[in-house]
Design a protein that fits this description.
The protein is an alpha/beta fold. The protein has 2 domains: 203 residues, NAD(P)-binding Rossmann-like Domain (Rossmann fold, 3-Layer(aba) Sandwich), CATH 3.40.50; 86 residues, UDP-galactose 4-epimerase, domain 1. Helices cover 40% and strands 15% of the residues. It contains 11 helices and 13 strands. It has a 7-stranded parallel β-sheet with strand order 3-2-1-4-5-6-11, with helices on both faces. It has a two-stranded parallel ribbon with strand order 7-10. Strands 8-13 form a two-stranded parallel sheet. α2 links the parallel β2 and β3. It is globular and about 60 Å long.
Length: 325
């Protein structure tokens, strides 16, 4: 689907990945981009640059799980395509599992019903690699068994099945993106922060970073700007209709190496504190991205090391501008 002159909705568009997607979508010259976000994790400041570049950006502070708010946003703005990134995060699901599952289910089912009614023409939904749990088949392709290790992953796995069923029964043509571990500028650095912003923050404060477990657990890290690029390419690819597509570098990074890389980039000579392995922590993630390459003719371009350097520089700029860190 062409994005030029289209009316686009991005749920969760004030968030880490969502805001980078908005930046990338502006380059496609759409008629308008509408963002709906409840600011549970997202920040309006993430769209500061986008607002300067694109007059057609509209931000609605509201919850996409609320059917009335979502429907009004879609109808009033004559939306053509929805990029669905809104979700309550994994760490919350360890404390309030029912709330997270019900919220994320409501968002997806609201959109599926509105798509079925013909209120918009295309749905690009963000799943998660957490729906697969730890790797049983290496590398993990799109047919990897769904075996989540936490309530967030379980809820998202269920949504994948809802979408596939709606496709089969009602003839929908959704595109499901299964992103692996994202990192980069704007990543949440407060509550529910990931290992990369937590490690950077500790070193900035002169503290030793913490390694949970033996450090041999792995993730397939992808730089967030590559994720935004890949999302647009998948959205434009007709061959992606009805498919689940891994969005990943296809490179396995050990958590111990991750911490050492950040220490090296930041010139930190101190020790790393070792703590016991965390509950519900995935042991291994390593994606097969051949389907992405086949459908789009593209794979992520940013190396892990270059992405870490850019991420660290962003945090330095935040500090120099005296932003809250």
């Amino acid at each position: 689907m062409k994005l030029k002159n289209k009316s686009i909705l991005v749920t969760g568009g004030c968030g880490f990945i969502g805001s980078h997607l908005v930046d990338r979508l502006i380059k496609e010259k759409p008629e308008r981009i509408v963002v709906i976000d409840n600011l549970f994790l997202g920040k309006e400041e993430n769209l500061a640059d986008a607002k300067k570049l694109f007059d057609g950006l509209k931000v609605i502070i509201g919850d996409a799980a609320n059917n009335t708010i979502l429907r009004k946003a879609i109808v009033d703005n004559k939306i053509d395509i929805v990029f669905d990134l809104a979700a309550m995060p994994l760490p919350t699901s360890l404390v309030e599992p029912r709330r997270v599952i019900e919220n994320n289910n409501s968002i997806a089912l609201n959109l599926l019903e509105m798509y079925r009614e013909g209120l918009f023409k295309e749905l690009v939904h963000y799943s998660t690699s957490e729906s697969c749990g730890s790797a049983k088949i290496v590398p993990m392709d799109e047919n990897h068994p769904l075996d989540p290790m936490n309530p967030y992953g379980a809820g998202k796995a269920g949504i994948d099945l809802y979408i596939k069923t709606y496709n089969r029964v009602f003839g929908l043509k959704t595109k499901i993106i299964r992103p692996f571990n994202n990192f980069g500028p704007r990543q949440n650095r407060d509550a529910y922060a990931g290992v990369i912003p937590i490690t950077i923050r500790k070193i900035f404060e002169g503290k030793s970073p913490i390694l949970y477990g033996d450090g041999l657990q792995t993730r397939d890290y992808i730089f967030v700007k590559d994720t935004a690029e890949g999302t647009v390419r998948i959205a434009k690819a007709k061959a992606a209709e009805g498919e689940i597509i891994n969005l990943a570098r296809g490179k396995e990074i050990q958590i111990g190496y991750l911490i050492e890389t950040i220490k090296k980039v930041m010139g930190f000579k101190g020790e790393t504190i070792k703590e016991p392995e965390r509950v519900a922590d995935v042991r291994r993630h390593f994606a097969n991205n051949e389907k992405l390459k086949k459908i789009t003719g593209w794979v992520p371009q940013t190396s892990f090391e270059d992405g870490i350097k850019e991420t660290v520089e962003w945090y330095k700029s935040m500090l120099s501008e005296k932003h809250k860190f």
